[in-house]
Amino acid sequence: MQQAKRILVTGGAGFLGSFLCERLLGEGHEVACVDNFFTGSRKNVSSLLDNRSFEIIRHDVTFPLYVEVDEIYNLACPASPIHYQFDPVQTTKTSVHGAINMLGLAKRVRAKILQASTSEVYGDPEIHPQTEDYWGRVNPIGPRACYDEGKRCAETLFFDYWRQHKLRIKVARIFNTYGPRMRPDDGRVISNFIVQALQNEPITVYGTGQQTRSFCYVDDLIDGLVRMMQTDDGVTGPINLGNPVEFTMLELANLVIELTGSRSRIISLPLPIDDPRQRQPDIGTALRELNWEPRTALRDGLVKTIAYFEGLVSSGYLRPAA
Ligand code: NAD
Ligand code: UDP
Ligand code: UDP
């Protein structure tokens, strides 16, 4: 067993953050979860609240934070388009000021720091699948820019603190990840389709449904993040983390209908502005540097995620099918 560490997880009450806190506590570490509860909630970490090694701090990362830790996972930032576009200025501040504060903290306490970056840094890509050396195609003034450019600037800050202050950094570029604990109103495609299917409501495919994404199950992704944090100091990334198996949104809609046995029909709604047409990670670097690749096929991960949402129906959090 490795030595117990004090680990800070920002955004720790969110979807990915809550699984990460659970995993790190399971390995015997002390975990401080910092969150402003914008999209996260205490409920996501309710099973951890009795653990004496777990601490939850309500705090907005755009303000300075003084704690003593050995490692920092910086996940704070709304990730779903409807949530990050709700207050776009706050989204950019969260990525940029949040990164500056967490890097300043890492510098003061000499902590190792990992940034949850995103495939959105590639924008609507001309290179397929996306490799880490691709610089991306992002519209800097569109409605997605607060997220995409905020995350790009955060990467810049990480690499400047690395060059200038010799910080130990890790930058993970996370591709679409799904699983239990996504909010029913999260707005991202997998939770939308499952909730709609369970309620026999129309499945809302945006545009033609021919756009693609590659979906990674949460357990696989968390394993990739933890492995990346454990790499030698020479490994900074960026490293793509995601499942390279690519689906169109129409294929996804049909798979969700099949797995839920739903009577839903598929309807088409307008495609959001700047919606990337295709996305698939090249995970050669993750395989080489982390000996990591995802294990969970979409069908298997969907079955587990559907079971979670069915639980919300039976416990009254979600309306049952009409
Ligand atoms: P999420 O919205 O469930 O989690 C984000 C968490 O950050 C929430 O708990 C929220 O309350 C908190 N937060 C937001 N702004 C904050 C602030 N200013 N101060 C403190 N806390 C704040 O989303 P998620 O899917 O768990 O994503 C976690 C991280 O992973 C994000 O940084 C996201 O950009 C990144 N990411 C996720 C995906 C994915 O598919 N899930 C893909 C790429 C990148
Ligand atoms: N910071 C923080 N916690 C710390 C140390 C610094 O939140 O433990 C913040 C600090 O408020 C500053 C930012 O991190 O705004 C960047 O810190 P750095 O030392 O790099 O820059 P400086 O303080 O010189 O501007
Ligand atoms: N999408 C859809 N119906 C929905 C929600 C999303 O067809 O109800 C599409 C969306 O237009 C995009 C894809 O699904 O092409 C993935 O969207 P999501 O918001 O999950 O992630 P992102 O676009 O950030 O990758």
TrEMBL record:
SUPFAM superfamilies: NAD(P)-binding Rossmann-fold domains. The lineage of its organism: Bacteria, Pseudomonadati, Pseudomonadota, Alphaproteobacteria, Hyphomicrobiales. Keywords: Decarboxylase, Lyase, NAD. Its cofactor is NAD(+). Residues 7-242 form the NAD-dependent epimerase/dehydratase domain. This is SDR family oxidoreductase. Pfam families: Epimerase. Gene3D superfamilies: NAD(P)-binding Rossmann-like Domain. Coiled coil: none annotated. InterPro entries: Epimerase_deHydtase (IPR001509), NAD(P)-bd_dom_sf (IPR036291), UXS-like (IPR044516).
